[in-house]
Design goal:
single chain, 366 residues, alpha/beta, two-stranded antiparallel ribbon, Nucleotide-diphospho-sugar transferase domain-containing protein
């Protein structure tokens, strides 16, 4: 099978493992992986730390960390991507290859935080039963969306119709046993079939895996983890601040300190949100959304990590403003002071900071 290869770096087979895939030299993904590992270690009870394996082309990045690294060379990464340019195929190949390293494998996307002991999830991984991040939707609810029409034809060829209860799972976390290689053989084959001639959606990997698992029970992991895929910018900012303060050299102190980092983006308090809603009561549409994002960033709780990422609320606002036409942008931003269309933030010092941020972002996009 083209996707399932023996791994180059010999690693002793263990009972349970957390498995990560990370390649390339982007700092943000290295920090994601390391912070995810810290959360897993911080939640492990009674000193029972899970074996952690990282499939990577940069093993030197994890020197000194309590992990085993398995080297991925460029040829392997190219082969795992396949011939259709779908890079998430590598994930299916990585899990398939990693099965040989443990009796039970919990594959973890790097943008995942553990909120309870990882060993609790291994209890749900049994022959014939898998763990997945979360249930996302029924096929019947999405099959008519424009970007799903090609996939609908492909699934129909395999007997999947809107009426037969096909469920789609997020594969940000995937728990399987060493007897599950057939799942990934089928998944990789379907990925190649469904990406031939191009593809319009980027979740084909998890749809293929959901299809391969369609006849078995699946346990959701969402009570034990937080997968922040939709809120990456906030967490990236907090993680960058964390490692800038404490460094990346592994220590038990680093494990302990990671618990200080919030596990949610910086929402204002319920009272502040109600107050902001009242302030924006006369606004509507995108101006209301822009105002909310600007004021949410200003009203973020007083916390060092929230301070480090509150500008991401303002980034949300700037992206909305960039969708406007030039005249509407000028009407909002071409003022020496705070625009009259929007209520002022509670912190007067934020007025200048916010407007400077918005003007810089809009100017850079021209």
């Amino acid at each position: 099978m083209s996707g399932i290869d023996p791994l180059a770096t010999p690693v002793k087979k263990t009972r349970h493992q957390l498995l990560y895939l990370i390649y390339g030299n982007q700092d943000v993904y290295r920090r994601e992986a390391k912070f995810s590992i810290l959360t897993a270690l911080s939640q492990a009870k009674n000193g029972k730390r899970p074996a952690i394996r990282i499939l990577t082309d940069r093993p030197q990045d994890y020197a000194g960390w309590p992990v085993d690294t398995i080297l991925l060379d460029e040829q392997t990464l190219t082969r795992w991507q396949g011939s259709h340019g779908y890079h998430h195929r590598r994930k299916a190949c990585a899990i398939a290859a990693g099965l040989q390293l443990a009796q039970k494998t919990l594959f973890v996307d790097t943008d995942t935080l553990f909120t309870s002991d990882p060993n609790r999830l291994f209890q749900h991984i049994t022959p014939g039963q898998s763990v997945m991040d979360r249930f996302e939707y029924d096929w019947k609810d999405v099959h008519q969306r424009q970007d799903y029409l090609k996939l609908a034809r492909d699934l129909d060829a395999h007997g999947v119709t809107p009426d037969n209860g096909f469920k789609l799972y997020n594969s940000g976390l995937c728990g399987v046993t060493d007897s599950d290689s057939a799942l990934f053989e089928e998944s990789i084959r379907l990925i190649d079939e469904w990406t031939a001639g191009g593809f319009e959606i980027h979740t084909i990997e998890q749809i293929a895996l959901s299809y391969a698992m369609r006849k078995r029970p699946v346990v959701e992991a969402r009570k034990h983890i937080y997968h922040y895929f939709a809120e990456k910018r906030f967490f990236h900012a907090m993680q960058a601040y964390f490692f800038s303060q404490h460094g990346e050299a592994f220590s038990q102190r680093l494990v302990d300190l990671c618990t200080d980092v919030p596990r949610a983006k910086p929402f204002p308090s319920a009272w502040q949100r109600l107050k902001i809603k009242w302030k924006l009561r006369n606004q509507s549409g995108t101006l209301r959304k822009v105002g909310r994002d600007l004021l949410y960033g200003s009203a973020a709780p007083d916390h060092p990590y929230y301070t480090a990422c509150r500008h991401e609320w303002w980034e949300c606002a700037s992206r909305e403003i960039l969708r406007w036409d030039e005249s509407r942008r000028k009407k909002l931003l071409d003022h020496p002071r705070w625009p009259q269309q929007l209520p002022r933030p509670d912190k007067p010092e934020d007025e200048k900071i916010i407007m400077s941020y918005l003007k810089k972002r809009v100017s850079a996009a021209r």
